[in-house]
Amino acid sequence: MEYKDYYQSLGVEKTASADDIKKAYRKLVRKYHPDVSKHADSDSKTKEINEAYGVLGDAEKRTAYDELGSGRHAGQPFQPPPEWASAFGGGGNSDYFSDLFANVGRRSRAGGPGGPGGGYQARGEDIHATIAVDLVDLYHGATRTITLRVPQRDSVGRVVTSEKSIEVKIPKGVLPGQQLRLAGQGHPGIGGGSSGDLFLEIGLKPDQRYRVDGSHVYETVPVAPWEAALGASIAVPTPSGDVEVTVPAGSQTGRKLRLKGRGIPARLPGDLYLVLEVVLPPADNDKARALYETMARELAFNPRARTGA
Predict the structure, then answer these.
(1) What angle (nearest 5°) sits at the alpha carbon of residue 82, between those of residues 77 and 83?
(2) Residue 142 — pLDDT band, cuts 50, 70, 90?
(3) Rounded Cα distance, 9 and 302, in Å
(4) Residue that wins the pLDDT comparison between 296 and 83
(5) Is pLDDT at 241 greater than 50 in this prediction?
(6) Which residues pair with 221 in a beta bridge?
(7) What is the spatial distance between Cα 60 and Cα 105, in angstroms, rounded to a whole number?
(8) What is the Cα–Cα distance from 174 to 180, expressed in whole angstroms?
(9) Strand 198-204, strand 127-133: pairing
(10) Residue 209, SS3?
(11) In the chain, is it the N or the C terminus that has fewer CB atoms within a 10 Å radius of its CB?
(12) Cβ distance 131 to 202 under 8 Å?
């Protein structure tokens, strides 16, 4: 079966108030009434309008419809969840969707799945979002406050958005792309049903010093030409603290120094790779230019020799 967009049938937005829905319904009923309409499909159109208003004109049915149809579009293949069929006795025929909501009203008055007199109940939708953190947060853990905009219904049934602040604990060793589940922090349920969950995907804030591959971290470390050529012991700031490393003599740009186990402290800790980058001092004064000129004269060095140039 296909999903029916009742809002589209009445020509109103999903944020329309109850009064707006009623006005749109009355206007369309007059337009397509068989006694006055010249439209060839007035009968089927009238049936469609009545079916749509039968759901959207009832606050409880509208809430259930919005919950079930979230994110769907008219004409999409649609299969109601098993719990709906078992709860309301639905089948697979074309009238099931409208019959289902008619049953919602009857069940809510007689006592539905939520217990006698309890009305229809449904779990709230989950929320999926992304939180961007610094690399150091993955090493040590952190607490962050995020603000989400969530839909709610006001006293007249209109859908409005409100801000919701949540404190999130970033556990030590979580990896980019992993999700944190915050139970009960999703959309509220219907008729007293439980709230959905909030799923936060971990993202990294951009930092040109680092590249992350799984639990391994690659850090660019600038070194002076003499440190690379002669070798040196240098201090390097890393996400887990400063370390003292030895630059081997004769190092070139791109050489990697591996620090085992100093990557992200996940269940299987990664490694930290220090990627050397030889940085030339600028020839921006007489003394610096003289030194470069001396090297040019006295060093038999051709960086393109390997290419045959």
Answers:
(1) 130
(2) very high
(3) 77
(4) 296
(5) yes
(6) 276
(7) 8
(8) 9
(9) parallel
(10) coil
(11) C
(12) yes
